[in-house]
């Protein structure tokens, strides 16, 4: 299904009347996506006091907001994005492409020899409106995120990533199963029904 442009009257009407958008404004979250992570975490207890995690594609920062509150003083949140992101208490933000050596070097310097317990990724490409191109771009980002998780997660760690069902989905699921003991799907209530987005949760990294 074609994505609605973020300037279309239908998208704006839906967005303005979206109960999660209103809740996010009231609760002080930067985006409605906050509730997706809250719901998944309620079920799976991925983020707790002391968790060390990386948030890939973090801007505007709602997932990092949630994570920073949950990890407490003993945990650590690293956020990475090509886009700028306003500072958040308890979050180390690196602006840049995490495929680039300089960005990875800065991340590893901040990580300071700690292994990550968790990688979370709510990235999506800029949508062109061409489903085939958008799907390919989306899975390319997901593959990069999986590669990052494979390289930085501790044994037994977990990975939560947004994907879009369609071409490439089964292959990506198979790739995740090579890295994690279990791979489960999650579709939180805050994820719009008409959206093909789904979250894959890999647990127990080999």
Automatic annotation (TrEMBL):
Protein name, UniProt field:
Ribosomal RNA large subunit methyltransferase E
Q: Which HAMAP family match?
A: RNA_methyltr_E (MF_01547)
Classification lineage: Bacteria, Pseudomonadati, Pseudomonadota, Betaproteobacteria, Neisseriales
Report the residue ranges that make up the Ribosomal RNA methyltransferase FtsJ domain in this protein.
Answer: 29-205
| Known function | Specifically methylates the uridine in position 2552 of 23S rRNA at the 2'-O position of the ribose in the fully assembled 50S ribosomal subunit.
Gene Ontology terms for molecular function: rRNA (uridine-2'-O-)-methyltransferase activity
Recorded source organism is Kingella oralis ATCC 51147
Gene field = rlmE
Q: Which keywords are on file for this protein? A: Cytoplasm, Methyltransferase, rRNA processing, S-adenosyl-L-methionine, Transferase
If you read the UniProt record, what top EC class would you report for this enzyme, in one word? transferase
């Amino acid at each position: 299904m074609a994505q609605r442009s973020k300037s279309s009257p239908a998208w704006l009407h839906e967005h303005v009347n979206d109960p999660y958008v209103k809740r996010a404004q009231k609760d002080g979250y930067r985006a409605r996506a906050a509730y997706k992570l809250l719901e998944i975490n309620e079920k799976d207890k991925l983020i707790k006091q002391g968790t060390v995690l990386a948030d890939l594609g973090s801007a505007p920062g709602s997932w990092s907001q949630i994570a920073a509150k949950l990890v407490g003083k003993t945990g650590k949140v690293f956020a990475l994005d090509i886009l700028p992101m306003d500072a958040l208490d308890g979050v180390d933000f690196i602006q840049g492409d995490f495929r680039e050596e300089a960005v990875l070097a800065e991340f590893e310097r901040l990580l300071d020899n700690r292994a990550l317990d968790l990688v979370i990724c709510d990235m999506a490409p800029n949508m062109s409106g061409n489903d085939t191109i958008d799907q390919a771009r989306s899975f390319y980002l997901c593959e990069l995120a999986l590669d990052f998780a494979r390289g930085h997660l501790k044994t037994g760690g977990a990975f939560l990533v947004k994907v879009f069902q369609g071409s490439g989905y089964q292959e990506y699921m198979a790739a995740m199963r090579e890295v994690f003991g279990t791979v489960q799907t999650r579709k939180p209530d805050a994820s719009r029904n008409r959206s093909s987005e789904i979250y894959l949760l890999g647990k127990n990294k080999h």
